[in-house]
From TrEMBL:
PANTHER family: HTH-TYPE TRANSCRIPTIONAL REGULATOR BETI, HTH-TYPE TRANSCRIPTIONAL REGULATOR RUTR. This is HTH-type transcriptional regulator BetI. PROSITE patterns: HTH_TETR_1, HTH_TETR_2. It comes from Vibrio tritonius. Repressor involved in choline regulation of the bet genes. Repressor involved in the biosynthesis of the osmoprotectant glycine betaine. It represses transcription of the choline transporter BetT and the genes of BetAB involved in the synthesis of glycine betaine.
Length: 199
């Protein structure tokens, strides 16, 4: 976490530089020297405010997660509370918006996921992100399905989001966002149809 007093103008500058350097050379080679050079600041500033590379990576991921959270919130705010299917699909779409699929953001996400397996603080951030996604989905799904089935469908949608995002990130050709969203929408439609045929 950045220390109190860190100029707000410096935070986005350093976050952007961190993502740019990670995209260019990878997390392990992304040294404080390279990041500070990219940001046009001294290495001492990064060490002073973030305690080094680890703290800066944590702040970078917090920034990405805040951006993602704001995108989801805005998408849901534009829809009626009772439009459950549309709200589910809006949550899905928010995971593939333009910001989240930038090359530098994608590579930072991948580095974060890998690094979080060996770092308790980064793993905590990942868990918060995971629970937030499930929470958003469950609010809508519980209005349609019973508790247990809503839980199952929420986890399946989350797995589809993560799996399709990962396939797109690692594929040289990538995947069409529309194609990804249609695959997940087909799953949601199948679940809704099965629910209707029970009555």
């Amino acid at each position: 976490m950045p220390k109190v007093g860190m100029p707000d103008i410096r935070k986005p500058q350093l976050v952007k530089a961190t993502m740019t350097v990670i995209e260019r050379v990878g997390l392990h080679a992304a040294s404080i020297a390279l990041i500070s050079e990219e940001a046009g600041v001294s290495s001492g500033i990064i060490n002073h405010y973030f305690g080094g590379k680890h703290g800066l990576l944590e702040e970078t991921m917090r920034s990405i997660l805040r951006e993602h959270g704001a995108t989801v919130s805005k998408a849901l705010a534009d829809l009626p509370k009772t439009a459950h299917k549309q709200r589910i699909l809006a949550i899905v779409k928010a995971n593939f918006d333009n910001y989240q699929t930038q090359g530098c953001v994608i590579k930072t996400w991948l580095a974060f996921w890998s690094h979080s397996m060996h770092d308790k603080q980064l793993m905590r951030l990942q868990r918060v992100n995971e629970m937030r996604l499930l929470s958003h989905l469950l609010i809508e799904l519980k209005a349609i399905f019973c508790e247990s089935h809503a839980q199952n469908v929420a986890h399946a949608i989350a797995a589809l989001i993560d799996g399709m995002w990962l396939r797109a990130a690692l594929s040289p050709e990538g995947l069409s966002h529309n194609h990804i969203e249609s695959i997940i929408e087909n799953y949601v439609e199948t679940q809704l149809l099965a629910q209707q045929t029970q009555y």
